[in-house]
Amino acid sequence: MTTTSTASVRLHEPPSVPGLPLLGNMIPFIRTQGLPIDFMREAAAQYGDLVRLKVGGDTFYLIAHPDLVHDVLVKRINDFDKVSGAAEKPVALARFLGNSILTANYEDWRPQRKLIQPLMHTTHIRSYANTMAQFADKMTSQWQDGAVRDMHVDMMQVTIWIIAETMFGTDVTHTPELQEVAQAAQAIAVSDLTSPLPAALTHGRDRKAEQVNAVLTNIVQRFMAERGAQGNTDRHDLLALLMETRDEDGQPMSDEFVRNNILTLFFAGHETTANTLTWALYYLDKNPAVAAELHKEVDAVLGGRLPTLDDLPHLPYTAMVINETMRNEPTVAVIPRFVMNDTELGGYHLKGGSVAFVSPYILHHDPRWWTHPDQFDPTRFSAENEPNIPKYAYLPFGGGPRVCIGNHFALMEAQILLATFASRYQFSLMPGTAVEPIRQVTTSPKHGLPMRLTRRV
After folding, report:
1. By CB atoms within 10 Å of each CB, which of 5, 189, 335, 362 scores lowest?
2. pLDDT per residue over 75-121, tens digit each?
3. How many helices (H) and strands (E) in the chain?
4. CATH 1.10.630.10, domain 26-455, yes or no
5. pLDDT score of 8
6. What does residue 396 show for φ and ψ, rounded to 5 degrees?
7. What distance in Å separates the CA atoms of residue 42 and residue 251, rounded to the nearest whole number?
């Protein structure tokens, strides 16, 4: 049974976090620039695996147990969908990505996944390894021994170079506006989900969203026009592959389909990897023994040269560092799903039209699934230990049929870049730096990550 009628069976609401009259739990949401993950983690620890939050007139359910996550993301995806049936207009990332593979409801998503999945096949993804290594080399060529740099800025830059080449097949002169509007879109998307303001009071946000959309559409149209002017060329970037995609009747996909999905791949593939690398450098500085083990591996395998695709199986500790980084600071702290109708979950009644929050961050820091969860320990992901991790207690790329389609691209990119950087430099956080995560759609350091670089080779 997936939907329960409260007329026939009386179910209690999940435990609620006490709040203020009318406001409910609004204060933590408006005090935080982004998602109040510490408040949510404390709520789950105190009130259980399914907790109700009230923010003004809106209801949110916080889901913090792997079995319930499995229900939401796998078994009952029609009950917990990405699109609200009650929404009068697109919200969150759907404002910017339209009806794409990331934002579409389940029925619209299935045919898109079938069309796009071949573009993310290992054959295509593996061909990008040399491009990733070359741009890693380009980034390190800009560094100097003893220099102080904001590593978040640098990680954003190197991943935008890679995205520009592998997804758009273009040089980097077009990319600064892409970065700017992507960050604006994130802030609007979080406000859509958590702001208590009624629709009548969000006109400013709506106007900003329209401006962001206009920029995104113009960028993609420019790239598509360039492809059309070039004619039949042997290009292998993802935009070219999307434009060559045909539906079951052999017809090319609409410009809107191409626009929405190339932007989806950009959003999913750029800032997420940049943030993972940023946090990896932060944790390596905080854990010298881990850094020493990483340096030992990359020195033995690479000897100062650039990594190749064939090197990656011989860099397991590098991959473990990346996995542990994504556990400590998952690229997406909260995965929202709309509760389509009144339903039951975990023996409780959930209200239709509300939003369910699956939180990878909370799951990744739960001591029931992770020993000393706030410690940074890459050996959790060793060949011996990784099989013992409970399923759906680790969600770096989401879970179920709608797991991130670009996960293999992201992991390969992160491993190549981190191996290159660690083989050439050591990174030390500048004394007195306050590192504060800001958790919007993705998680980044609010004030950047200034680090001193020490050349190793």
Report:
1. 5
2. 998 899 876 555 555 657 777 777 777 777 767 777 777 777 766 66
3. 17, 12
4. yes
5. 46
6. -65, -25
7. 52
**Closest C-alpha to 348, from 17, 48, 78, 42:** 48
* Distance separating alpha carbons of residues 224 and 244, to the nearest angstrom: 11
Query: What are the two backbone dihedrals, phi and then psi, of residue 50, each rounded to the nearest 5 degrees?
Result: -140, 110
Q: Are 454 and 172 in contact (CB under 8 A)?
A: no
Reduced to 3 states, what is the DSSP secondary structure of residue 50? strand
Q: What is the DSSP letter of 378?
A: G
Q: CA–CA separation, 321 vs 333, rounded Å?
A: 19
Instruction: Kindly tell me the burial class for residue 388, based on how many C-beta atoms sit within 10 Å of its own C-beta (0-12, 13-18, 19 or more).
Output: exposed
DSSP 3-state of 439:
strand
Q: Quick count: other Cβ atoms within 10 Å of Cβ 286?
A: 12
- How is residue 450 written in tokens? 């200034």
Instruction: Indicate left, alpha or beta for 455 from its phi (over 0: left) and psi (-120 to 50: alpha).
Output: beta
CA distance 441 to 40: 16
The size of the chain, in residues, is 457
Pair 351, 457: CB distance under 8 Å: no
Q: Which of 236, 243, 234 is nearest to 261 (CA)?
A: 243
Q: What does the pLDDT read at residue 171?
A: 62
DSSP state of 244: H
d(CA 375, CA 394): 16
User: pTM value?
Assistant: 0.85
Place of tokens 């179920």: 400
Q: At 369, list the tokens.
A: 């699934």
C-alpha to C-alpha distance for 179 and 271, rounded to whole angstroms:
9
Residue 67 CA from chain centroid, whole number: 22
Q: Under the phi-then-psi rule, with left for phi > 0, alpha for psi from -120 to 50, and beta for the rest, what region is 110? A: alpha
DSSP 309: G
3-state DSSP percent of the chain in helix, strand and coil, to 5? 50, 10, 35
Domain ranges of the chain: 26-455
Q: Cα-atom radius of gyration of the chain, to the nearest Å?
A: 22
Other C-beta atoms closer than 10 Å to the C-beta of 92 total 25
Q: Summarize pLDDT for 180-206 with one digit per residue, the tens.
A: 777 777 677 767 766 655 666 677 888
